[in-house]
Specification:
Blueprint (H helix, E strand, L loop, with lengths): L3 H27 L2 H17 L10 H24 L3 H14 L7 H12 L2 H12 L4 H8 L3 H19 L3
Helix pairs in contact: 1-2, 1-3, 2-3, 3-7, 4-5, 5-8, 6-8, 7-8
Length: 170
């Protein structure tokens, strides 16, 4: 039987180890600081409620990223529905929120890069974030996104090509 103090200690260790990388992963998806914090808390709540369902087929880190990824997508869907927008228009809303976010202090080049990322198709953007920002192995990415490793490679390649095109001077 797990005592509450053991449970609190485990939760504390989990959040201490993964909060910062998960926050930045989520932030790159939802783009807004407040939304990222909300999604992070929701992700931990879901993970804690479902910890007995963790089967160990993947690492705990991969499992947490899966939960954070799905929770991020759910948050974007809710926001899209609130604005009554198609998913393709949602990137404009997110970018405008990013520009207005007091926690976003990047220069013009970073803003241009974020705009280019937002123009990528959803799957390519997510693969790019996991490959280049999170530096995850292809197998882990495939597990998180529930696609094949070949699809990860293809989406990564396409994302790089499109970003080069978006960012190259005309």
């Amino acid at each position: 039987m797990i005592r509450e103090s053991d449970s609190n200690y485990g939760y504390s260790l989990l959040t201490k180890k993964y909060s910062e990388p998960l926050y930045w992963f989520i932030r790159k998806i939802v783009l807004n600081h407040e939304d990222a914090n909300d999604v992070l808390q929701d992700s931990y709540l879901k993970a804690f409620q479902k910890i007995d369902q963790f089967e160990g087929r993947s690492s705990l880190k991969t499992w947490l990223y899966q939960i954070a990824y799905r929770t991020s997508l759910d948050a974007l869907k809710k926001k899209r529905n609130r604005f009554f927008l198609p998913l393709s228009s949602m990137s404009d809303v997110l970018l405008n929120q990013l520009k207005a976010d007091s926690y976003f202090d990047a220069d013009e080049a970073e803003l241009k890069f974020q705009q280019a990322l937002a123009k990528l198709p959803h799957r390519q953007r997510e693969v790019f974030l996991l490959v280049y920002y999170e530096e995850m192995p292809l197998k882990e990415i495939a597990t998180i996104l529930k696609i094949t490793e070949g699809a990860v490679k293809a989406n990564s390649h396409l994302a790089k090509q499109k970003l080069k095109k978006f960012l190259s001077p005309d």
